[in-house]
Amino acid sequence: MKRSLMVAVAMALVAGPAIADESTYDTVVRKYGEAYAIADICPSLEINAGRMAIYLVGLGIELDEAFKSRVLEQVAVAKTTLGDTNRYKVCTLGHMLYGESGTNAPGLLKVE
């Protein structure tokens, strides 16, 4: 874990921050919103703030009030979409999409 984190940091620093286009920005906002919603519903998962920061730096996205506001909007959308979904299924979804080996954004969520 520490090694992969260090490799990601080194890659972000060497490559330099890229300027995220609008579609990339929107995708990051959506994925972060979904991850926060899942972490709020699933007690065994929590946000991996370090990994989130690495993604933002690597993509050249600033963690400003506008970004935070858009993420909060997406949290509400994700919670509405998940609706009455069984907590176990939400946890499983969180692991599949945002867990250490997730398919959407690996490592955004970690086991508490």
User: What shape does the CA trace take?
Assistant: globular
Helix-and-strand structural type:
mainly alpha
Q: How many individual helices?
A: 5
Return the average pLDDT rounded to an integer: 85
β-sheet strand percentage? 5-15%
Quick one: how many beta strands? 2
Main β sheet profile: 2 strands, antiparallel
Describe the overall structure.
There is one protein chain. This protein is mainly alpha-helical and 112 residues long. The protein contains five helices and two strands; from the N terminus they run ααβαααβ. The protein has helices spanning 2-15, 22-41, 49-59, 65-82, 87-98; strands at 45-47, 109-111. The chain has a two-stranded antiparallel sheet with strand order 1-2. α2 (22-41) crosses α4 (65-82). The longest helix has 20 residues, at 22-41. The chain starts with a helix and ends with a strand.
Summarize it:
This protein is mainly α.
List keywords for this structure.
112 residues; mainly alpha; two-stranded antiparallel ribbon; 5 helices; 2 strands; 67% helix; 5% strand
